[in-house]
Amino acid sequence: MVEHGAIHASGPDTDYLIIGAGAMGMAFADEILRGSKDAQVLMVDRRAKPGGHWNDAYPFVSLHQPALFYGVNSRELGAGGEDLVSRAQILAYYELALKDFEATGRFVFLPQHDYLPGGVLRSLISGRPDRKVAPRKTVDATYMDVRVPANTAPKYAHSERAQLIPINGLASLDRPYSRYVVLGAGKTGIDAVLYLLEQHVAPETISWVMPNDAWFLNRANIQPPNIAAEFIDQMRLMHEVGSLDLVLDELERLGRLLRLDPEVRPTKYRCATVTDEELAALRQVKDVIRLGRVSRIDDATLQLASGERIFPEAPEDILYVDCTADGLAPRPEVPIFAGDRITLQAISMCQQVMSAAAIGALELRMDSDAEKNAILAPVAHPAVPADYLPAFARTMENQKRLGGKMFCWTFTSRLSGAKHMPFFHFVRFMLATLRWPALDDERVAALLGDH
Ligand SMILES: Cc1cc2nc3c(=O)[nH]c(=O)nc-3n(C[C@H](O)[C@H](O)[C@H](O)COP(=O)(O)OP(=O)(O)OC[C@H]3O[C@@H](n4cnc5c(N)ncnc54)[C@H](O)[C@@H]3O)c2cc1C
User: Is 12 left (phi over 0), alpha (psi -120 to 50) or beta?
Assistant: First the structure.
């Protein structure tokens, strides 16, 4: 039973009201609780348990970057090395982290509560009167607006006979289908195809709707022994070659970027990661439908933005698997620190969790919003290749300033890639940042050209 009176009786209700118990809210809370001896934290979430979108994810999902630097700073996750933990492990981890928070005596979690503007907390279950809180600071840990298929209705219509499930439904099928049509080619679509193949579904019976091809990151290079080289090559190329396309081509030649079909130039860049083995498996699927987005499913006919596909199978033998939710759509950048409001955003490209922790750590070390915002600027989640350069440049600038302000934090926090770099790699990395500093706007514009 949640004790509603457990937070301060007088003065502000709490120091930090954190809206959202997803990965970002949890990483921020952890930083505040371990970095301060007296700060009080109240966390609310519409969901019953911490972990945010992982609560609704498909059972066979796992992290796509090492668990070694995911979660919260005060607790290890996974077996180390390349381990990618599963959804079940992630949810159990956040539950244990929450218990750690509660053990401080300075933390209260209100599950199944909606935060409404003006500091109103509404129980979604008890019918108790709304509670109004006046925190010293309100932390928006919902801003990334993560979407997963299980809780996002598809944008296309479908006939009644068309058998359409979100990816989660694959885990509870009780009969095989003659044809599986995977709709969507982001990380979720990749996971759906890989899962079907792992379950020995014949590749010829899989059709894959791919509105856009994307550049993939090679997961082998996001492992601690290789992180420094991954960054160094990118920094070097951005200074040495003349255009974004040449940077991408060279990264592909070096095995740092991958694509599904060597004949098709990717038009997306979303930080999805795959291994060489996964890519080889995905390439077994030959029926890749590149006719834009799905607009309607009529029984055995798929209507797409620039054409249609009629499957020969009977509608009851076709299973459409929805993977079209845009997990991390780009959000407008807003100042992170703004008076009594903190809006959690990535400050490192595609590293939302480390970002939330870094914001928490900086919050405890400095008072002035202007100074804090001058150290950490938001980095929008990339969607297309042209987003990659400014996001990378901003990441490098943030890292440099963060290292200058919080050197120890950067090298002792498990969420920070730097902690996991061998010392010798770190020295090479630092030397590289001197030789190839973060790109300025002029160089970014020159590399982008007509992109
Ligand atoms: C499938 C998938 C795999 C990923 N894998 C990785 C990975 O391997 N490595 C990595 O670094 N990143 C990964 N990410 C990205 C990373 O996990 C997410 O960016 C991060 O989890 C974002 O979490 P969040 O806390 O911002 O959002 P969420 O998880 O969406 O949490 C926000 C919470 O806020 C709550 N909420 C919203 N509005 C309100 C309100 N008004 N009142 C109360 N509560 C509210 C919601 O209920 C939700 O629980 C992955 C993302 C996805 C979708």
Answer: beta
Task: Specify whether 273 is located in the same domain as 350.
Answer: no
Closest CA to 334 of 361, 373, 367, 372: 373
* 308-319: average pLDDT: 97
CATH of the domain at 183: 3.50.50.60
Model confidence pLDDT, tens digit, residues 102-161: 999 999 999 999 999 999 999 999 988 999 999 999 999 999 988 888 888 899 999 999
The percentage of residues in the chain with a pLDDT greater than 70, rounded to a whole number, is 97
- In a domain? residue 37: yes
Rounded to an integer, the average pLDDT of 322-348 is: 93
Residues 182, 272: one domain? Answer: yes
Q: Are residues 165 and 299 in the same domain?
A: yes
CA of residue 49 to ligand 1 center, whole Å: 13
Which atom of ligand 1 is the closest one to the Cα of 144? 26
Give the pLDDT confidence of 422-436 residue by residue, as tens digits. 999 999 999 999 999
Ligand 1: residue of 42, 53, 271 to mutate (most ligand atoms within 8 A of CB) is: 53
Number of compact structural domains in the chain = 3
Same domain as 242, residue 185: no
Encoded tokens for 14: 């709490």
Are 308 and 322 within 8 A, CB to CB?
A: no
Tell me how far apart the alpha carbons of residues 94 and 111 are, in angstroms, rounded to a whole number: 13
Domain residues for 435?
Answer: 226-256+421-451
